[in-house]
Amino acid sequence: MAKEKSRLQVKYENEIRPELMKELGIDNIMAVPNLTKIVVNSGLGEAKVDRTAIDDMMRDIALITGQKPVATRSRKAISNFKIREGMDIGVKVTLRRDMMWYFMDRLISISLPRIKDFRGIPAKAFDRNGNYALGMNEHTVFPEVDTTQVTKIRGLQIVICTSSDNDEHAFKLLEKLGMPFVKSKKKNKS
User: Fold this and answer.
1) Which residues form the domain of 166?
2) Reported pTM
């Protein structure tokens, strides 16, 4: 039984990919920028004192992404932060293929507009390799999270990896997918 594709993935394959081929002057369809993976990460500094923080965030990220996350461990001991080597200090999940497209669709159309006083996301968070990092202060903007069971509002980092090797092509891809970037204001010289 075949799964249905996400509406964003269908839109990419039918409309966005041909447009990008024309705009970027690419002849080969395999060279057109595409999403490769999305990594959702949350660092939990309070986990060194409160052991339930890891379990709570694992539950919430599993609800948000639809995939079970893994706990990230510290690589070395840092005495000033009271962290020992091998201690659980975060949670992450890597989304690929169908799960990635479904998450991206929900992020763009549902979660980002729910942010209080939202005016768009900055276009300066590219890493020169075509990947975009988005930080969120509240994980409760996702409708899957039951706010009555949340003990503390925590932040998330979402890294969107593309097959592009430069930021201009990745920006065009994300813009066409519907990412609400902040519109740059041009100053008039008088």
Assistant:
1) 31-177
2) 0.80
